[in-house]
Specification:
heterodimer, A: about 475 residues, 2 domains, 18 helices, globular, B: about 350 residues, alpha/beta, 3 domains, six-stranded mixed beta sheet, about 45% helix, transmembrane (chain A), ABC_transp_permease (chain A), High-affinity branched-chain amino acid ABC transporter permease LivM (chain A)
């Protein structure tokens, strides 16, 4: 908590000086607000102030003065208020929350552990909670939970590469795509392959492609590493899009089989899940089952990553993030270490991709754009590099947040019936991200827990932990 | 060669480092584009010795270090590391001719370091190093730093990770042994109470000691230290001397680059002096400190007056002894290579050193 230490006021300073300080602070706030207002005026004149309409015989320019002045006013007062109440203070935005959390951690020593357990129990019972409490909307809730859980798993997978090994990977969606297409193609070309057979194969293929990506980027650092991984993600997508004979190109692949429960399908009639257990058919069963599959997959990812972290390979990943040259001087083969990080991270991406294919029943290259990579990376960064529980929080905020913003119907009461909240979804979402990054620059959980201790494990502050290549 | 002359003048027949070397560097040349950093350098590091590589700034000491530890590929030359006693000349020639990187026979082994990548030099040949600007894993605890150093053994014990994921007892045993070894070196370096603190939080002197402890956790045959006493106060350098001597007693040979003459002269069994990438002296502390070429390289001048940094002069006088300088002053330089231009260069080097210290 770097900001906490700044929270001490210089005691006993003369009242006059502080009054003058206060005055100049207000003056400065006004001055800066005016500058911002001028900037907004200049920038938004064409974007907001001018509107073109189709008129007979060409375009007609119409001025929207009210909209322009509104934008300027928002800029002016926004900056003024920020200056007066946020920036000017010598306490950081996060310090009070940080101090509060510090007190809380003192009061409840194993807070993190208990939070984790509560999360786990809640996640394990979630479909039943949803069915019991919200009988009308249970399908929608479980669907969103499945989505969040998928991103949690992807975040944990990417966390191995970015958070632990410190290798910035902007093309992670490629492995998601490899996993999804592996299952889709295998099930198209070979009838006997179902979800459970395809799952390990998809993971293996994705791991293989992780190594294929790993080799060319072994010696790259920083921005170069980021660019090549970004290009790799695009290459996979473009190949899927253009190899029409094999992948179906932009049409994608449909009719991907649904997962079965030990051979029992989720449908009506003979030999189905409901028939076998003698319960009345309900379409929700399939969703609950899908939820438990991704829950299980995510759990495996979690346990394996936690285990890996305290094994030599995991420590080597973290050491690689801290200092690659020192690693080599200690006899660590950095090539293999990087490749295992890429391969294992990619493998979990492949598992998740295969699950995505079976859930949708349809895959097409459109699902694997750079935007997906960016969202997964944003989850990892927002959660705190290297932190498992942080990624869960970030997924809930990001994915759950986007979904929750779809239900902004109440805003029409404020802004009138013409207001379409769905249009402002991304704007609100972007603002929320900016606020979170200002409040917690190193993510929700920025401290690092040591993997081994002689006496007691002391968490390591974010200022000491390196971020690796490309940050 | 001056080196041989000085050895002969010291009265020894064949010095120990020629008889039982752990490392020999032969005709090492390192060229960076047009710059010749090291030129045809040959020396030996004796088994169980503390060997110091000294010389003015820019003499090529760190370049030699980087060649030995594989961070640079030398342009020419052979660097042979030996496990087991004796010169093993036959084995060295056999490996050189065969195109292999190394060969082990029983307790003997020869490793040609110029052919090996850096991580293999640490892992196979048993050469560990520290860095001039400390390179610790700052966000990891002191104990974790020492466990990372034991990576290769632990990876094998964890069944290449597969066994470790399932928590096999053999791995858990190996890990607790690794912790025991780490604790041993933490006690040696007096860092035991800091074991659970992040390495980046330690004060400078402790970070230096931790880097040595980390290097020792790789079980090296040869420990290479790049300016271990830089930035230490007198008490800390005294502790460093004791630590290095205890490392030698535990059977590890030490090769160090050092500017602190107090450290060098007190603990070194063998000193090699470089200037402008060329060896100018080689011998025990006594023979090196009286070697006129060394004094010329370090002082760069014939008179004391020209030294404008008094504390450096004091350092040098303390190190080489007052007699040597006054002896030298009246008579002209014996070696024509120590010309005025070179002398000016080395005096600049030495005053830079004074500034840094």
């Amino acid at each position: 908590m770097a900001t906490t230490s700044a929270g001490i006021h210089p005691a006993g300073s003369p009242a006059i000086a502080s009054a003058r300080q206060e005055e100049s602070r207000i003056a400065r706030a006004f001055r800066e607000a005016v500058i911002v207002a001028l900037l907004v005026a200049a920038l938004s004149f064409f974007f907001i102030g001018v509107r073109t309409d189709i008129a007979p015989g060409g375009l007609d320019i119409r001025m929207r003065w009210e909209a322009w002045f509104t934008a300027i006013a928002i800029g002016f007062f926004g900056r003024l208020l920020l200056n007066l109440f946020v920036f000017g203070r010598d306490w950081g935005v996060g310090s009070r929350a940080g101090a509060a959390r510090g007190r809380l951690t003192e009061a409840v020593p194993n807070l993190g552990k208990w939070m984790l357990r509560t999360f786990f129990v809640f996640a394990a019972l979630l479909p039943f909670i949803a069915m019991y409490l919200f009988p009308g909307r249970d399908r929608q809730l479980i669907d969103v939970s499945i989505l969040i859980m998928t991103y949690v798993m992807l975040g944990w997978g990417l966390n191995i590469v970015v958070g632990l090994a410190g290798l910035l990977d902007l093309g992670y969606v490629a492995f998601y795509a490899v996993g999804a297409y592996s299952f889709a193609l295998l099930s198209t070309y070979y009838d006997f392959i179902g979800f459970w057979t395809a799952l390990p194969l998809a993971g293996l293929l994705a791991a293989l492609w992780g190594m294929v990506l790993g080799f060319p980027v072994l010696r790259l650092r920083g921005d170069y590493l980021a660019i090549v991984t970004l290009a790799f993600g695009e290459i996979i997508r473009v190949v899927l899009l253009n190899w029409y004979e094999f992948t179906g190109g932009p049409n994608g692949i449909s009719g991907i089989p649904k997962p079965t429960f030990f051979g029992l399908e989720f449908g009506r009639g003979e030999g189905s899940f409901s028939d076998f257990f003698g319960i009345p058919y309900s379409p929700i069963h399939r969703f609950v089952y899908l939820y438990y599959i991704i829950f299980l997959l995510a759990l495996v990812t979690y346990v394996v990553t936690i285990r890996l972290r305290s094994l030599p390979i995991g420590r080597a990943w973290e050491a690689l993030r801290e200092d690659e040259i020192a690693c080599r001087s200690l006899g660590i083969n950095t090539r293999n270490t990087k490749l295992t990080a890429f391969a294992i991270g990619a493998m979990f991406g492949g598992f998740a991709g295969s699950f995505f294919a079976t859930r949708q029943g349809f895959v097409s290259p459109e699902s694997f754009t750079f935007m997906e990579s960016a969202i997964i990376l944003a989850i990892v960064v927002l959660g705190g590099l290297g932190s498992q529980i942080g990624i869960v929080l970030a997924s809930i905020v990001m994915i759950g947040g986007i979904e929750a913003l779809r239900n902004l119907g109440f805003l029409t009461y404020i802004f009138g019936p013409d207001f379409d909240p769905a249009q402002y979804r991304m704007l609100l979402f972007g603002m929320a991200m900016v606020v979170i990054m200002v409040w917690k620059p190193r993510g929700f959980v920025s401290t690092r827990e040591p993997t081994v201790a002689l006496k007691e494990k002391k968490r390591i502050g974010a200022d000491l932990v390196a971020q690796g290549e490309g940050h | 060669m001056v080196a041989e002359a000085s050895v002969v003048s010291a009265g020894a027949s064949v010095p120990r480092w020629e008889d039982d070397p752990v490392l020999t560097v032969e005709h090492l040349t390192m060229r960076f584009g047009g710059l010749l950093a090291v030129r045809d350098l040959s020396f030996s590091v004796g088994r169980g010795d503390i060997t110091a590589l000294i010389g003015p700034n820019g003499a090529g000491k760190t370049t030699v270090f980087n060649c030995v530890t594989g961070f640079y590929k030398p342009t020419e030359g052979r660097i042979a590391m030996r496990h087991g006693p004796g010169k093993q000349e036959a084995l060295v020639e056999e490996v050189t001719a065969s195109g292999l990187r190394w060969k082990k026979e029983g307790n003997q082994g020869v490793f040609l370091l110029e052919r090996m990548p850096d991580y293999e030099i640490s892992h196979r040949a048993g050469v560990a190093r520290t860095f001039q600007n400390i390179r610790l894993f700052g966000g990891m605890t002191v104990l974790e730093n020492l466990l990372v150093a034991q990576h290769n053994r632990l990876v094998v014990a964890s069944g290449f990770t597969v066994g470790g994921i399932f928590g096999l007892p053999s791995y858990r045993r190996a890990e607790s042994e690794a912790v025991d070894k780490a604790v041993h070196w933490l006690k040696q370096t007096n860092l035991l109470e800091r074991a659970d603190d992040p390495a980046g939080d330690l004060p400078y002197g402790q970070q230096r000691r931790l880097e040595i402890a980390r290097a020792m956790c790789t079980d090296p045959h040869l420990l290479c230290l790049d300016e271990p006493a830089a930035g230490l106060n007198p008490r800390e350098s005294q502790e460093l001397n004791e630590l290095l001597q205890s490392i030698r007693e535990q059977g590890t040979s030490v090769l160090l680059i050092e500017h602190d003459m107090g450290v060098v002269m007190e603990i070194s069994d063998h000193i090699i002096v470089l200037d402008y990438g060329v060896k100018i002296a080689d011998g025990d502390a006594e023979s090196v400190r009286t070697d006129p070429k060394v004094i010329a390289a370090y002082l760069g001048v014939e008179d004391e007056e020209d030294l404008d940094v008094p504390e450096v002069l004091e350092d040098v006088i303390e190190a080489v002894g007052e007699d040597a300088i006054t002896d030298l002053a009246p008579e002209p330089m014996q070696d024509p290579s120590a010309t005025a231009g070179e002398a000016a260069g080395s005096s600049e080097g030495i005053s830079k050193k004074g500034g840094a210290a």
